[in-house]
Amino acid sequence: MPEMPEVDALVAHLRERCVGAVVAGIELGSFSVLKTVDPPLDSFAGLSVTDVRRHGKFIDLDVDGLHLVFHLAKAGWLRWSDRFSPARIKMGNGPLALRVRLDTGDGPTAGFDLTEAGTRKGLAVYAVRDVAEVPGVAALGPDPLADGFDLRPLLARRMQVKRLLRDQKIVAGIGNAYSDEILHAARLSPFAIAENLDEDQVAALAAAVRDVLSAAVSEAHGKPAAELKDDKRTRMRVHGRTGQPCPVCGDTVAEVAFSDSSLQYCPTCQTGGARLKDRSTSKFLK
Predict the structure, then answer these.
(1) Residues of the domain holding 114
(2) What is the pTM of this model?
(3) Are 35 and 72 members of one domain?
(4) 11: domain CATH number?
(5) For the chain, how big is the Rg over CA atoms in Å?
(6) I need a surface site. Which of 15, 21, 133, 260 has the fewest CB within 10 A?
(7) Residue 234, φ and ψ in degrees, nearest 5
(8) Are 28 and 18 in contact (CB under 8 A)?
């Protein structure tokens, strides 16, 4: 799943290519991906893209005051093309969910596709007049890289810190992968209770949130969209590295499996050598 650093890089990628271009058309490849009915997609045609922004993990294409907002979910992705075929896409055409055709000055040939792999569909697109009309955007917590962000008051909750970091209503933009990386950097158990953290642990966690995400955003920017997924994997220290040595202490990275996901951690760095119990029937990551 793309998280804040990858989404931020995609936003920069789109902003560079889209701002000033005219929307030639928006074509649906999957009826279920569109979550709104008004304004209709054809109302974007002929309008110019004025900005591209990120809200948590949402991408917001500002088109002369109308907004095309999308969330890539677990298996969605964005694919840019400098030259599309003139033929319109067809409904049910494999992973292709939506195409945005743009006229960048050489005719309506460029643009981007939204695709989604697998059978569990979560990719969501919203056409709105105000981005606050998107329920997920309206409910977002503060952005951890925004000026003035303060993690401390957000920790006054009796919930596991891993779950807290992933809750978009509390902190926007962090998902499963970067929460694993942040907790490893902070040397905290994913099952630690947020409100029980002492001052040193809170300071370590706040620093890890800032440092891990800032470094990841810096690494992701400037890379082609097609390379962002693989680049993210290569930068992970514990996430997705079960059975491999921890790069800090050399202990073996361990895993806790859930019904549809998993987390990774280092027992030596994070849990005092203890192995966490498998909670595959838990609602922890839902």
Answers:
(1) 4-138
(2) 0.93
(3) yes
(4) 3.20.190.10
(5) 20
(6) 260
(7) -70, -20
(8) no
